[in-house]
Amino acid sequence: MNKKVDVLVIGAGPAGIISAVTARKYYPEKKIAVMKSINKGVIPCGIPYMFASLKDPEENKLGNAALEKNNIDVIVDEAVKIDRAEKTVSTEKENIYGYDKLILATGSEPITPPIKGIDTKGVYKIYKDMIYLKKLIEETKKAKNVLILGGGFIGVELADEISKIKGLNVYLVEMLPEILANSFDSEFSKIAEETLKLSGVKVLTNTRVEEVIGGEQIEKVLFSDGTTIAVDTIIIGTGGIPNSKIASDAELNIGRGRGIWVDEYMRTIDQDIFAVGDCAAKRDFYTHKEAPVMLASTATAEARIAGANLYKLKVVRENKGTIEIYSTCIDGKALGSAGLTENTAKKEGFEIVTGNSEAVDKHPPTLPGASKIKVKLIFSKNSGIILGGQVAGGISCGEIINLIGVAIQKRMSFAELETLQMATHPLLTSAPTVYPIVLAAQDASSKM
After folding, report:
1. DSSP 8-class letter at 246
2. Which of 112, 115, 158 is CA-nearest to residue 133?
3. 150-175 pLDDT, tens digit each
4. Beta 273-275 vs 240-242: how paired, if at all?
5. 0.90 exceeded by the pTM?
6. C-alpha separations of 316 from 304, 309, 320, 438 in Å
7. Which end of the chain is more exposed for a tag (fewer CB within 10 A), N or C?
8. For 308-348, what is each residue's pLDDT tens digit?
9. Distance from first CA to last CA of the chain, Å, rounded?
10. Hey, what domains does the chain have and what are their CATH numbers?
């Protein structure tokens, strides 16, 4: 079957959906279609919570409602080849789709670490496929000993969630000295580790799995120090790599990290092909070096840029790089990070000064549900411009890190943050006299 559309989006994750919906907003007359290879997808960020917090894994399904509401066609098929000269996409079902504009939102693939026996039955990757994940959840609940491989955000959130299943021993294994080490400085990584341990997770840092041992089914793992532990299930949470093969085969430029090269408006070297989300290369906000960032929030921001500017640069809203902004929640303890950590800033050669503060997120602090918040801000010593920030504490940290993210994007100085005007309320925020971002900026100011 041959079919022609004006805008074809390959991929129906958050980046693909938002690209299509944004295109519909700016180009209402265009025929738009989204192609997805999996019939029943899931909300990526909600995957860990399918194991225990949600009553039914189906509650985390990623449906087509937004696409249907916006009169966007949905094609269930897998793209296998792009012909740039003919401006067509060939599919697994031997269909051919013509396009005027093509958006690649093909996502990422799970990383498989080079471990002997990693293909043994009982070892699972994280795929964004409802049927696959329901099987994984079912098998996990039957197990006695579950090992999560990787102490980044995926691994930490999986370990925290799976620890809520009664009768399970949960191990989290990380080869680096600390968990979440790429996003937080040591004092915040320790908060995360201690919180996990209080939930019953056995956190093994500075530990490398050398071999998965078993016959037809996994039995145990061998660590680099020669010790072994019995394991029924291993879940690989070591991150992903861009799914860019179809772009590479079409001779689009690919970065060192396998992401598709794009300009500030998410255009590839082919002006009629855009790339957004995990499959697109990211550049660091400060250095413009390639950055391995895969976040739905970043993906949807890129999608809005691409969708708005498909035919003309209607919205001057450039992608100036990612600030690598993250948040997570471990057993009720929220942590967030944006921009450079103290460690990464020093490695990049920035001369910095840090500001720290602690405050309670309600006032008076005796109010029910009050939590202590810890904030750390990193500034350029010479210019006073904010470079990064971290926060840990109660649920309000989720929005505090977003405020820090805005400050970074707008290149605010410690002086501007020190005089920040904010809304406060006893039940909602810290007291205006001890607002933690202001206190941290003042602490940095005193060191300038």
Report:
1. H
2. 158
3. 999 999 999 999 999 999 999 999 99
4. unpaired
5. yes
6. 12, 9, 12, 32
7. N
8. 999 988 776 666 788 899 999 999 999 999 999 999 999 99
9. 67
10. 2-41+60-108+241-308 (3.50.50.60), 123-238 (3.50.50.60), 332-447 (3.30.390.30)
